[in-house]
Specification:
By secondary structure, the protein is an alpha/beta fold. It has 13 helices and 14 strands. It has an 8-stranded mixed beta sheet with strand order 1-9-8-5-4-2-3-13, with helices on both faces. Strands 10-11-14-12 form a 4-stranded antiparallel beta sheet. Helix 4 links the parallel strand 2 and strand 3. It starts with 30 loop residues before the first helix and ends with a helix.
Length: 385
């Protein structure tokens, strides 16, 4: 493969960065958010235990997801724990989840006294492999956590069919992909309980926050009871709910722009050796892109992942490494290994992720990503030394 001649040194070696201003900030300036903040100040909601914004957000999220029940909480991670408690998962129970997953899910299982059982991930997108799921079920398995990560999707229809055959609950973690479409339905609406996150870097952001989604009144009631200590434990504030409302109005439009930008970016980067975008099966899907996932092959590219990430960041391009696989660096007493986790180990070593804000910019910003890779490739020998 050849690249255009570029004698300028990479920024990590002293050259001028391609994006001297750095990656785009998040959250972006939003006039409607500013106006609702002013309104929440004017009506005093910013300092109230109970006001109009949290109920309105829960109502709007329920309508958006076509579900009757939504409960907002103080973080997406806490929403997973609350979901486990609502499902009455506890001591001597086992919860199946991908061996490559957000670490908080593993820790939430332990928080309720249960045991994680680690399932292999799909070769094409390093998300939960439903084809390995059924064989992973054990005698004490009670629930499944299915997370959609880095633009990858888990086929939820198949997961729900497996769960139904074995009497298992399903928590669908849509923290990274609010508004995504999976087999014709919104992410978070397939499971017994769905989970959203409103963390400071998320597509819907309030700095912190999360929500549980469910169609089942008894699970909604159990979650509320689990969080009540004379007052709600770890609630979403009125001010947080206020700023989420205008963002929810724009979610579909912004997701569509991100989707188009990712398609264009994949074309731009298609000839970069050792860089393969996460792939999803054919179907009625529109992934969500909080992070854009790539499978990275160090040998084919010619640099280590951490060296590449450092070089890209020096250029002002917001790439990073993925999660740690759950079975690596932990005592085997803390989980059940359900089989060969070779793909999860590949994900551990080879996931490369691009942070989403650049996807709302323009074609020139996407071209800068390609230019950064080209510059790094053209000076690979210097970067290896």
């Amino acid at each position: 493969m050849t690249f255009p001649n570029d004698q300028q040194l990479p920024a990590i070696l002293g050259g001028d960065p391609i994006r001297p201003e750095g990656p785009p900030v998040w959250p972006i300036a939003d006039k409607e958010v500013e106006l609702v903040l002013q309104a929440a100040y004017a009506d005093g909601s910013w300092g109230k235990y109970e006001g109009k914004y949290v109920p309105e957000l829960e109502k709007r999220l329920a309508a958006y997801h076509n579900l009757p029940h939504v409960l907002t909480v103080g973080s997406g991670t806490f929403a997973v724990e609350a979901a486990l408690r609502a499902l009455r998962i506890g001591a001597n129970d086992e919860v199946l989840l991908a061996a490559y997953d957000y670490p908080g899910n593993f820790l939430c299982i332990h928080e309720v006294g249960a045991m994680p059982a680690l399932v292999e991930v799909k070769p094409g997108n390093w998300n939960l492999d439903f084809e390995k799921l059924e064989a992973s079920i054990g005698p004490t398995s009670r629930a499944i956590i299915a997370s959609h990560l880095h633009g990858g999707l888990v086929p939820m229809r198949e997961v729900m069919e497996i769960a139904a055959r074995h009497g298992l609950f399903v928590i669908e973690d849509a923290a990274q992909c609010p508004g995504a479409l999976i087999q014709g339905r919104k992410a978070g609406t397939w499971g017994d309980i769905g989970v959203l996150s409103f963390g400071g870097s998320k597509l819907l952001t309030a700095g912190r926050g999360g929500a549980l989604l469910t169609s089942q009144p008894k699970l909604f009631q159990r979650a509320k009871v689990a969080l009540y200590r004379g007052n709600l434990v770890c609630p979403l504030s009125e001010l947080q709910a206020a700023v989420l409302l205008p963002q929810l109005d724009k979610l579909d439009e912004r997701n569509a722009l991100r989707f188009r930008s990712v398609a264009a970016l994949f074309k731009l980067l298609r000839d970069i050796p050792g860089l393969t975008p996460f792939q999803n099966p054919d179907g009625d899907h529109q992934p969500g892109f909080y992070k854009v996932g790539f499978q990275f092959d160090t040998m084919r590219f010619g640099l280590t992942r951490n060296r590449l990430v450092a070089a890209l960041r020096a250029e002002g391009i917001a790439f990073g490494e993925g999660f740690r696989a759950a079975h690596i660096g932990r005592s085997p007493n803390r989980f059940r290994n359900t089989g060969d986790l070779h793909e999860a180990e590949r994900a551990h070593a080879g996931t490369l992720i691009l942070h989403h804000p650049v996807l709302l910019e323009n074609d020139a910003a996407l071209q800068q990503i390609l230019q950064a890779f080209q510059r790094i490739m053209n000076h690979q020998a210097l970067l290896q030394s």
